[in-house]
Write a structure and sequence with these properties.
Layout: H1 4-19, E1 23-25, E2 31-33, E3 36-37, E4 41-43, H2 45-66, H3 69-80, H4 84-91, E5 101-112, E6 136-142, H5 149-164, H6 177-191, E7 197-201, H7 209-223, E8 227-230, H8 232-238, E9 239-242, E10 245-248, E11 251-258, H9 270-280, E12 285-287, H10 290-295, H11 298-303, H12 307-310, H13 316-323, E13 329-331, E14 335-338, E15 341-344, H14 345-351, E16 356-360, E17 369-370, H15 373-380, E18 389-393, E19 400-406, E20 409-428, E21 431-446, E22 460-462, E23 464-466
Parallel strand pairs: 4-23, 7-8, 7-11, 11-12
Antiparallel strand pairs: 1-2, 3-19, 5-6, 5-20, 9-10, 10-11, 13-18, 14-15, 16-17, 16-18, 19-20, 20-21, 21-22
Helix pairs in contact: 3-4, 6-7, 8-9, 14-15
Length: 467
C-alpha cells in the first residue's frame, strides 16, 4: 500500500508523463500512459562501462556479417525449408546491389546476473571460462525496429524532474532520441536528392505510435525533413520506382526505416509482399537492409556463441569480450555435456525446462516458450521443424524491488531489469565510417513475467542510477 504522499507523487508522475508524450494505445483504441517505473535501476560503474564499450564492437560485427551472404545463407537456408516467413525474406534478395550505404540503428539487450551466478553456469561455453568473468548476459541484439528512443528519453526527463525536486535519486543522463534523429537526417542528406523524405514502415494498428511520432516530430523540427508513414501494403498501392528511386506521394524516399516487416503478420497479403519487393528493388537506404535484418536472427546469435565462428568476424581480443557475455545456446539436435552424460539438447531441455527458453526465428515479443511450455512444444514438434528453433539458457537476472505504474495503478513488486544499449553505425560497402553508443533503454518487469515488451504491457520503462 502506498501512503497518501506516494499516491499523489505517482498521480502527478502519470500526468507529467502524459504531458511529455509517454503514451500508448490500448487494444480498444483508448489512450493511456506508457508503463513506467518509479524506481531507477541501480547499476555498477564497471557493468555500465562494459556494456557501453560493447556497443561499437557488436555494431561492427553485424556490419561484417551482413556483408557475408554465403554465411547467412548457409545457416538460414536449412531453416527456411520449414519456415515460410524466413524463406520469403531470403527470396527478397536481389542479385544486384542497389545501395552501397548502410545505416545500422541497433539495440543490444542484457540482463545483469545474480552475484552468485556471475562466474558462469554449467551451460556457459568453455571459451568463456578462460576470460575474466562478466555479470552481463546478452539477451538479444535487435537489428530491426530498435524501438523506444523517444519514450525512454521522455521517461528520463520525467525522472530528472523528480530528482531536481528531491523526489527521486539522481539518474544517469540518457538521450538516444537526438542521435537517432540526427543519423536519419545525415542518411537523407547523403542520399543526395533534394526534398527527399524518410519512409517509416509501420503496422496498421500500431500501439506504439507515439514513440514513432516523437522521431518524426524531431526530424522535422531539427532538420526540416518530412516523414511519410505507410504500411507495406500502402507502399505497394501508392509507391512506384523512377530511375531506381522509390517514390511515394510524389516524393523521393531517401531512407526507409522499418518499424514493421519483422513478423509474418506484416505480410498477410500479396500487396504487402510486393511492397517490400518494391523497396528492395530501389536505391533507398534501408534501416536495416535485408542482410542486416537477417544478421539479427536467433540462429545467427546461436552460432556466434561458437568461438571458432565468432573469431572469423572479429579480433581475438574483441571475441573474448563478447563471448564472456553470451548465455549458453544450442540447436535442438545438438549433443551437449550434462551432469547425466552426453544428451541431445532437446531431451535435456525437456527434462530441465526451467533452465531454458525455446526461441523461434521471430522478433517482437510473445513468441518464446518458457518452463512447462517447452516439453509440450517439443513433443508436438516434427523432426524437420526443429531447425527453426534454438534453446537458450534461462538467464538468472539480479532481482530488486521497484514501484511499477501500469494503466494508472502502482504496485511495489520484486522485479528484474533488462538493459539495452543503442548503437548507431554508418558504413559503405561494408567499411565502417562512424560507430558509437548513444544511450540506453531499461525495461523493468515483475520477476515472474517472461516477456519484456513495454507496449504489450509486460514491462515498464525505467532509468539507471549509479550503485
Amino acid at each position: 500500500m502506498q501512503t497518501q504522499v506516494q499516491n499523489e507523487l505517482i498521480e502527478n508522475a502519470i500526468e507529467s508523463g502524459k504531458l511529455l508524450g509517454m503514451l500508448k494505445y490500448l487494444p480498444d483504441g483508448q489512450l493511456t500512459h506508457a508503463p513506467f517505473s518509479m524506481s531507477p535501476y541501480s547499476i555498477s560503474a564497471s557493468d555500465l562501462q562494459e556494456m557501453t564499450e560493447l556497443t561499437s564492437y557488436f555494431s561492427e560485427l553485424m556490419i561484417r556479417i551482413s556483408q557475408d551472404w554465403a554465411f547467412l545463407e548457409h545457416h538460414l537456408k536449412p531453416i527456411s525449408e520449414t519456415d515460410p516467413f524466413l524463406k520469403m525474406l531470403l527470396d527478397f534478395r536481389k542479385q544486384e546491389v542497389t545501395q552501397s550505404k548502410q545505416l545500422l540503428i541497433q539495440r543490444n539487450d542484457f540482463f545483469i546476473t545474480k552475484d552468485e551466478l556471475s562466474n558462469g553456469g554449467q551451460d556457459r561455453i568453455a571459451a568463456n571460462e578462460t576470460s575474466p568473468d562478466s555479470s552481463l548476459r546478452q539477451v538479444e541484439l535487435n537489428t530491426v525496429s530498435a524501438s523506444f528512443p523517444f519514450l525512454i528519453t521522455q521517461l528520463v526527463r520525467l525522472h530528472q524532474n523528480l530528482y531536481e525536486q528531491k523526489l527521486l535519486e539522481q539518474i544517469i543522463p540518457n538521450n538516444p532520441l537526438n542521435p537517432v534523429v540526427d543519423a536519419f537526417a545525415k542518411a537523407v542528406r547523403d542520399y543526395g536528392s533534394a526534398d527527399a523524405v524518410m519512409l517509416m514502415v509501420s503496422q496498421p494498428a500500431e500501439s506504439n505510435r507515439f514513440d514513432q511520432l516523437g522521431l518524426e516530430q524531431l526530424l522535422w523540427e531539427e532538420h526540416k525533413i518530412q516523414t511519410v508513414r505507410k504500411s507495406l501494403t500502402e507502399i505497394y498501392e501508392n509507391g512506384c520506382l523512377r530511375e531506381g528511386h522509390l517514390v511515394l506521394d510524389g516524393k523521393t524516399v531517401a531512407v526507409t526505416y522499418y518499424r514493421a516487416g519483422y513478423t509474418p503478420d506484416d505480410f498477410r497479403t500479396s500487396e504487402a509482399i510486393k511492397g517490400r519487393q518494391m523497396i528492395e528493388a530501389s536505391s533507398t537506404v534501408q534501416v536495416p537492409d535485408l542482410p542486416m535484418q537477417l544478421a539479427g536472427m536467433k540462429k545467427i546469435q546461436q552460432v556466434l556463441t561458437r568461438p571458432e565462428i565468432l573469431s572469423a568476424f572479429v579480433s581475438p581480443q574483441i571475441s573474448k569480450l563478447c563471448l564472456k557475455t553470451f548465455a549458453g545456446m544450442h540447436c535442438l539436435d545438438e549433443i551437449i555435456e550434462t551432469p547425466e552424460g552426453e544428451l541431445c539438447a532437446s531431451e535435456w531441455a525437456s527434462m530441465n525446462p526451467d533452465k531454458y527458453v525455446l526461441k523461434p526465428q521471430r522478433e517482437g515479443g510473445g513468441n518464446n516458450y518458457f518452463g512447462r511450455e517447452i516439453p509440450k512444444k517439443l513433443a508436438k514438434m516434427k523432426q524437420e521443424e526443429q531447425n527453426a528453433y534454438i534453446l537458450m539458457e534461462h538467464i538468472q537476472a539480479k532481482t530488486h524491488s521497484a514501484i511499477l505504474v501500469v494503466d494508472g495503478q502502482a504496485e511495489t513488486m520484486n522485479c528484474v531489469s533488462e538493459i539495452g544499449r543503442y548503437g548507431i553505425c554508418f558504413a559503405e560497402n561494408g567499411v565502417v565510417q562512424s560507430n558509437r553508443d548513444v544511450g540506453y533503454l531499461v525495461r523493468t518487469k515483475a520477476e515472474n513475467v517472461n516477456e519484456g515488451g513495454v507496449c504489450a504491457g509486460f514491462a515498464c520503462l525505467n532509468s539507471l542510477t549509479t550503485a
